[in-house]
Amino acid sequence: MAEPTNEPCATCAYDVRAELGEGPVWISDENAVYFVDINGRKVHRFVPELGEAHHWAAPNKVAFLMPVDDGTFLAGLPDGLYRFDPKTGTFDKILEVESDKPGNRLNDGCVDLYGRGWFGTMDDSEKAASGSLYSIEHSPDGFVLRQHDTGYSVTNGPAVSPDGKFLYVCDTPLGVIYRFDIGADGTLSNKRIFARLPEEKGYPDGVVTDCEGNVWCSTWGGGHVRSFAPDGVERAAFAIPAANVTKMAFGGDDRRTAYVTTARKGLSAEDLARHPQSGSLFTFRADKAGLPQHKIALSKAS
């Protein structure tokens, strides 16, 4: 077990200094990590072994990328879901989400082992509890969107346990990580608090799970990635040389190399002088292996 530390264990992998870096995903057949800069309206791709980087401009704030099994991504933009094709750099709208709530935007997503996507929405001003939790699946008739829960000011995280039985989601300003049961038909039930972060540890942002069912939570304003055992007890903490830590992904051949996005948003000049590489992509070696990156399944509809 890694001992919690306040000494940074992470190093800078890609000194990009994004305004609001988020949503890393590891694509193993490319040996690359994709992530977004929400406020910078960019998608980034970084190949650690080669030190190569590329980026694409997005038509609006792009909050997350969910890989699709045809090599594209589902991208969350403020008004809905788009297909992003890295070969052409194009964004094609496929589905409107909350068109009746112009103050909301999409925020953070994941894909479970069944090829189902999960994502949340939030009030872009981070005040009203107008956000909801959704799933997206592909069927023979196209994509099917389902709303599962509502009343969030900033949804973050969604992550699914390795066996597909539990979903974790954060309401960041409340400092809470919730846990749901997932039914065989994809319905959610039995919402309860999985963990609560005290303010001095920051606010829970993106979460992911590893192969043993531990939950890894990045902390906004907390400068750490914190790992919780399946019973909700904190088991390890990894310090990142940036205050606003947003999400991590497991990568590398053994899925034990963590890639962590961070943000410059909201930091003072003193904060940036202390951590000048804030907003960059950081990396460290995790003490547990992550799950393979699942993809939105189109093929099951055929």
List the helices and strands and how they pair.
Layout: E1 11-14, E2 21-27, E3 32-37, E4 42-47, E5 52-57, E6 64-67, E7 73-77, E8 80-85, E9 90-96, E10 104-111, E11 117-123, E12 131-139, E13 142-152, E14 155-160, E15 166-171, E16 176-182, E17 188-196, E18 203-209, E19 215-220, E20 224-228, E21 234-239, E22 244-251, E23 257-263, H1 269-274, E24 281-285
Antiparallel strand pairs: 1-24, 2-3, 3-4, 4-5, 6-7, 7-8, 8-9, 10-11, 11-12, 12-13, 14-15, 15-16, 16-17, 18-19, 19-20, 20-21, 22-23, 23-24
Protein name: SMP-30/gluconolactonase/LRE family protein
Family: Belongs to the SMP-30/CGR1 family.
InterPro entries: 6-blade_b-propeller_TolB-like (IPR011042), SGL (IPR013658), SMP-30 (IPR005511)
Can you describe this structure?
- This protein is mostly beta strands and 302 residues long.
- 2% of the residues lie in helices and 52% in strands.
- It has one helix at 269-274, and strands at 11-14, 21-27, 32-37, 42-47, 52-57, 64-67, 73-77, 80-85, 90-96, 104-111, 117-123, 131-139, 142-152, 155-160, 166-171, 176-182, 188-196, 203-209, 215-220, 224-228, 234-239, 244-251, 257-263, 281-285.
- The protein is globular.
- The termini are far apart.
- It comes from Asaia lannensis NBRC 102526.
- Belongs to the SMP-30/CGR1 family.
- Residues 20-264 form the SMP-30/Gluconolactonase/LRE-like region domain.
- This is SMP-30/gluconolactonase/LRE family protein.
- How would a textbook summarize the main sheet? 4 strands, antiparallel
Strands of the biggest beta sheet: in what spatial order?
1-24-23-22
Radius of gyration: 17 Å
Give unreliable regions as ranges: none
Average pLDDT value?
Answer: 95
Q: Give the helix level as a range of percent.
A: under 10%
- How would you classify the helix and strand content by structural class? mainly beta
The 3D shape can be described as globular
Please report which band the strand proportion falls in: under 5%, 5-15%, 15-25%, 25-35%, 35-45% or over 45%: over 45%
Strands, count: 24
* H-E string: EEEEEEEEEEEEEEEEEEEEEEEHE
Number of helices: 1
Distance between the termini: 44 Å
